[in-house]
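Continuing from the previous page of notes. For each protein in this section, the sequence appears first, followed by its structure tokens. Read the first protein now.
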Amino acid sequence: MHAMRISVVTKYLALLLIFSLVFTQINAQIRLAAYGGMHSANVIEKNNIAGWDTSVSKNYSQRTGFHLGVLLEIPIGNKGFYFQPGIGYSSKGRQYEKAYDTINGSTKDTVYYKNILKLGYVELPLYLTYKIPLSANHKNSFFISAGPYFSFFYNGTLSQESRTRVYGTSKFQYQTEDVDLPVGNAVGKYKTFDMGVNAKAGFEFGNVMISGYYSRGLTNFYHASYDGTFNHQIYGATLGIWLTKTSKAPPKASKDSDKDGIPDNEDACPLKPGDAEWRGCPPPDTDHDGVDDNHDSCRTVVGLASNHGCPIKDTDNDGVDDEHDFCKTVPGIAKYHGCPIPDTDGDGINDEVDKCPNEPGPAENQGCPVIKKQITEKVNYTARQVMFKSSSRLLVKSSYAALNNLISTLKSHPELHLTIEGHTDNTGSAAHNMTLSDQRANAVKSYLVKKGISPDRITAIGYGQEKPISDNNTNKGKSANRRVEFKLDYQQ
């Protein structure tokens, strides 16, 4: 039975070996090894049985076992780390042995008893390995490995041996028996799955590996009839042979501080990314326009990247390049896209200084048309007919006819704007006079607005006694100073 199971394991491992050999031929960086070795297996049992630690556990000891399998090696980067998964067979267990005192025993005593727990597992170790080279060609190294393992119950027997004294004689009766162990989740059965951790350390000499290793189970592998835990523990030694070779390792890359693909020992500017053409330095920028000479069609003239390092042409030399100049042959300003300031009314005065950009007028009138003399005289005459009650902002009735004539003029000339100025003599305080003059100017404005003139066309302002036109020391002069003035200009 045991031989048949071992044979099956051997066939399984052989199939895995063939598959691994094919796989490693596909990826030359992956290696395959076969390994085997001997170990000392034991079981760490913990329970609450009275006297266990003092009289029972001392009879248990380790048993000799073996392990074999195959291992793949997959490099992780180039820092000396490797992932090593594998599959193999491992025999585990322990033994119990006790010799009894035959002097004080009965005539039918068992004088010796021994059993060996033999458990076999198919095991899947997963190692993370780090290697420290011991030679320049990296063929010899010291390595350390650790990682989990997963194992599956394959076979198990309990081999028992006893020696009993035959009654009435000095002869002994010997008895041996092998019992197949049950598997399952019930009491007295062994679990089908176990897991734990492995650790190993050793040396590689060419294709040969020699290592010592330690294995410790983390799960309880047996359902006892009492409260207890059972964990596997192994100390062993392993010999391994690499069956395949990796392709030659690429030469170690030289340091490249600026990551420009040019090693520092060949880089004239090792701290600045550059081009091979310039020995690892950035391409020069002769004209310092931000476009390197490799991409600058005008290396000695400051230009723009959008124009391949060349300046954009400015035909009329107005500071606005031809790409953005709507008037390429006529000097202008950037505000008007390179064109001259417009003169909408064509009076020779550009719109920025022309107070009447839509009406032609002379420069001395700031670009506005000159108001006809008869209109000005008519308005001035009207202003002289506007009268107020003494010390009041109220218009006298005789003023309405004059103001109606003013309204007619304004409606006939909608382009005109009227400024109403209120003035007083120096009778009373200056503050009172300022207020009174402002009220009188706004009284005139209110009348005009009520008659249909837009308030936007009228400005009312009081000057009080600040602008006399006659002597305030005479009644005639004071009368002349108490007045309103109308001034016409063009709408802005």
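Done with the first. The second protein uses the same format. Note its length before scrolling.
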Amino acid sequence: MTRVKRGVTALKRRRSVLKQTKGFRWQRSKKERAAKEALLHAYTHSFQDRRKKKRVMRKGWNVKISAAAKLSGTSYSKLMGALKKADIKIDRKILSTLAEQYPKAFEKVLAEAK
């Protein structure tokens, strides 16, 4: 059987790992083993945070809707309940945009819900 030299492939893999850890601190950006370990942790956090991002965005929308509802003399929970009873299907993202950028339209939605 012929001999296979794998230096090129191994070097390519090492270089790609070190390229991915470019902005990391200390030996995590320079030494292969530490860089590999750092990448494993980084991948885990990035996966989790892509899911967490959705939660954080929804919280922000709720805060904006709540603030606009208080200005209109009602509470967030009462507003959401009224919207559900009136069968108005506007999601929180759109509601928060209305509350922030189009207050008159938000007031109309509020009046429709009551």
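What the second structure shows: The chain has a mean pLDDT of 93. Residues 32-71 form the longest helix (40 residues). We return to this in next week's lecture.
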